[in-house]
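tokens incoming
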């Protein structure tokens, strides 16, 4: 799933390639991708792009006061094309969900792999009308997001840190991969209660949060859209690396699996050397 650093890089890429250019066609291939109908998606046609914004994991392309907002969900992606194929795209079993064409002949496709179709597109006059945008918590890279703000959003949270960091209404933009990376950098267990942090621990988590995301954004800056996935994977130290050696201490990275996701961590760096219980395996052994 694209998270804050990748969406930030896509925002910058699209700002360079879209601002000042006119949209001539918006071609939905999978109708279910459209989550709003008034104004219709065709209302975006004929407008000049004036800005590109990011809200958490949402991308917002603004054109003459109208907003084309997309959330790429778990398996969605944006694929830029310097020259779009001739003729309209045909519905089928492929991953293409929607195409946006510019007057220059350039444009982009929104695609989604897999069977769970969660890619979403909204055309609205105000992004705050989108429920997912309206409920977003603070952006962790915003200038006014400091350790005190982090302490405030985590106070009273009776969930474990992993779940709190992934909740978009608590902090916007962090998902499964970067929550693992942040907790590893902070040397904290993903199962630690969010409300139990001391001021020193909150400060440590804040520094890990800001540095992890900032470094990932810097690595992605200037990359073409097609290279962002590979860059994300290459920069991860623990997420997706179960069975490999921790780059900090050399211990074996472990995994805890859930019904639809998993987390990775280093026992030595994060849990005092103790492996966390894998609930899925525990159920199988009962």
């Amino acid at each position: 799933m694209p998270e804050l650093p990748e969406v930030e890089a896509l925002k910058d890429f699209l700002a360079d390639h879209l601002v000042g250019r006119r949209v001539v066609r918006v071609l939905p291939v999978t109708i279910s991708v459209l989550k709003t109908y008034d104004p219709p998606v065709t209302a975006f046609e004929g407008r000049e792009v004036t800005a590109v914004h990011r809200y958490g994991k949402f991308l917002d392309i603004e054109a003459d006061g109208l907003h084309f907002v997309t959330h790429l969900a778990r398996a969605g992606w944006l694929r830029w094309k310097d020259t779009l194929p001739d003729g309209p795209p045909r519905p089928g079993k492929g991953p293409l969900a929607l195409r946006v064409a510019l007057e220059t002949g350039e444009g982009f496709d929104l695609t989604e792999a897999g069977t769970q179709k969660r890619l979403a597109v909204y055309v609205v006059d105000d992004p705050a009308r989108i429920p997912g945008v309206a409920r977003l918590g603070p952006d962790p890279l915003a200038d006014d997001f400091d350790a005190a703000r982090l302490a405030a959003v985590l106070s009273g949270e009776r969930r474990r840190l992993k779940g709190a960091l992934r909740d978009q209404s608590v902090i916007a933009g962090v998902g499964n991969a970067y929550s693992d990376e942040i907790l590893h950098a902070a040397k904290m267990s993903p199962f630690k209660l969010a409300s139990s942090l001391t001021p020193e621990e909150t400060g440590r988590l804040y520094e890990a949060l800001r540095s992890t995301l900032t470094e990932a954004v810097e690595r992605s800056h200037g990359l073409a859209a097609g290279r962002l996935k590979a860059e994300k994977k290459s920069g991860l130290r623990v997420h997706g690396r179960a069975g490999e050696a921790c780059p900090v201490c050399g211990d074996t990275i472990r995994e805890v699996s859930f019904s639809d996701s998993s987390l990775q961590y280093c026992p030595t760096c994060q849990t005092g050397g103790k492996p966390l219980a894998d609930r899925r395996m525990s159920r199988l052994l009962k």
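note: The two ends are 33 Å apart (CA to CA).
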